[in-house]
Amino acid sequence: MDKIAASAPQLQGVIPYDPKYLPADMMLSANENPSDVAPEIRREIERAIRKVELNRYPDPLANDLRDMIAEDNGLTREWVLVGNGGDELLFNTALAWGGPQRNFLNFPPTFSVYAANARLTNTNVIDIPRKSDDLFGIDEDAAIAALQDKARPVHYTIIANPNNPTGKMSDTTFLNNILKSTDALVMVDEAYFEFSRNTMRPYLEENKNLVILRTFSKAFSLAGVRLGYILAHPDVIREYIKVRQPYSVDAVSQAIARVVYANRAAFEPAIDGIIAERERLIEGLRSIPGIKAFPSDSNWVLFKMDRAKEAWQHLFDNGILIRDFSASTELTDCLRATVGLPEQNDALLTALRDFVLRR
What we know:
By secondary structure, the chain is of the alpha/beta class. The chain contains 12 helices and 13 strands. Helix 6 links the parallel strand 5 (about 155-160) and strand 6 (about 185-190).
């Protein structure tokens, strides 16, 4: 038959998430760690992979890895769940706490996948725009009011901390006020917490509605492996397990993650280097006429400039790929650059100076 039934109604008008992947000499668009896994850790990974029985299904819950993460966080495995990247765990949040006649509280501009997942699960999205200042902070009074609105109850919210793509942290006192003001699930997305050096982990046991999301993709140079995890109360973890796909984290990824997590201290010098380069990059951007660089607690810098779209093309023509947000209503004329290696950051700054000063 040359016909097919229509897809689900909620897919109408949905634009697939596009990470804007384009080949370039310098990939500074996706907030990846600019350094690959060190050779000595790679060799250990290779030895671990050789032991994997490829004909057998993996441990469905990656319990060995759960135990490692739990011990490091002063918990037991019942407080930890591993997923196929943070993306699976974000979608599972919408599956478990969203749905028809349920509400998700969103704080744009933020990671667009949050609202996309809500819409895919027929969850109503309540948007509270962030402040239009240099920090893009959350309107705290409006957030608390929305969470306490009994006529339109919020079932879950996600707060990126630091916020992507704007870069700054939310105040810890505010986050605790959020947690105390509602029984809604509050996910704090800490995908970049290794660069901010700030976490909500100390408040986990006292807040049953707190979920902390982390990833191996950024600080641990494993964006290509796809592995993330959450920390949450065991009752919450059990709800996530109900909706997760069986065997979502393959045996090879589990083996790689175990090696990397055991060697996580080896990544600290590179993380410190990225933090130092972040400050140098911000200063360099601010030294270029017409560029406004926003403060950042993460491994990227958001900046605003005239002719941003042209500047993005100029950079790409020079082999440098960064992220273009210039057409966004909330981030007009803004671009986002991942903090790269020193020579990559130098090349970015040189190309931007060339664009600004010669045109």
